[in-house]
């Protein structure tokens, strides 16, 4: 390794845990960070821009990406494909940018298999009562949908053991700072910094010559 490479940060957690808000805060607060843009076969909605909101693909193009290993993960949702483009993420990482991917636990586990060098952080609420309050406060879902989300939250929490870190989102700024510190620490790990030792050794050899 001859130059610092970015880190792929994978954020997951139950609906209402606040992972999307934390993701947005990280992008605002940290330089050299990019958001992972997903691919989809659904039609663009009004105002959506290809390459910014999503990479819009035909079904044939998407299935070719699956066949050729062009996706870190993918899923079919209500008849449309969604997935994380491998080359887009790798290009950003090779530019030295950290890439944040907000995704459900099933997708995160796919990413872990295809890119084990990622850093996997599970965002949890301080309690299920607080989670319930947050979801109801949104006011964006019907009552039956909210009940399904809360029921799913308990089973989703079981995925936390598969992650590298767990961060409690009791207060957004505090939780964001914790995740930011995780990124900083990960950048200091030997596997990501040994190039420094190589450079020092090369300098010594050059001076002796």
TrEMBL record:
Annotated gene: gmk
GO terms, molecular function: ATP binding; GMP kinase activity
Main location: cytoplasm
Keyword Nuclease included in the entry's annotation: no
Compartments, as annotated in UniProt: Cytoplasm
Described function: Essential for recycling GMP and indirectly, cGMP.
Stated family: Belongs to the guanylate kinase family.
Keyword entries, A-Z: ATP-binding, Cytoplasm, Kinase, Nucleotide-binding, Transferase
Binding-site residues for ATP, renumbered to this chain: 13-20
Protein name as it appears in the record: Guanylate kinase
PANTHER family attached to this UniProt entry: GUANYLATE KINASE (PTHR23117:SF13), GUANYLATE KINASE-RELATED (PTHR23117)
Database matches in InterPro entries: GK/Ca_channel_bsu, Guanylate_kin-like_dom, Guanylate_kinase, Guanylate_kinase_CS, P-loop_NTPase
């Amino acid at each position: 390794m001859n130059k610092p490479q970015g880190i792929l940060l994978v954020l997951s957690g139950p609906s209402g845990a606040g992972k999307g808000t934390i993701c947005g805060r990280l992008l605002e607060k940290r330089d050299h960070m990019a958001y992972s843009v997903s691919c989809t076969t659904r039609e663009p909605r009004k105002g959506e821009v290809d390459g910014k909101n999503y990479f819009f693909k035909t079904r044939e193009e998407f299935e070719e990406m699956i066949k050729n290993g062009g996706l870190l993960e993918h899923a079919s949702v209500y008849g449309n494909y969604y997935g994380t483009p491998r080359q887009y993420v790798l290009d950003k990482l090779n530019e030295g940018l950290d890439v944040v991917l907000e995704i459900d636990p099933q997708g995160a586990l796919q990413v872990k298999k295809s890119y084990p060098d990622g850093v996997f952080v599970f965002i949890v609420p301080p309690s299920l009562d607080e989670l319930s309050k947050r979801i109801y406060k949104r006011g964006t879902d019907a009552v039956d949908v909210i009940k399904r989300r809360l029921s799913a939250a308990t089973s989703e929490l079981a995925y936390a053991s598969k992650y590298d870190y767990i961060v409690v989102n009791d207060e957004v700024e505090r939780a964001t700072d914790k995740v930011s510190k995780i990124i900083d620490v990960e950048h200091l790990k030997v596997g990501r910094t040994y190039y420094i030792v190589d450079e020092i050794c090369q300098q010594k050899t050059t001076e002796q010559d």
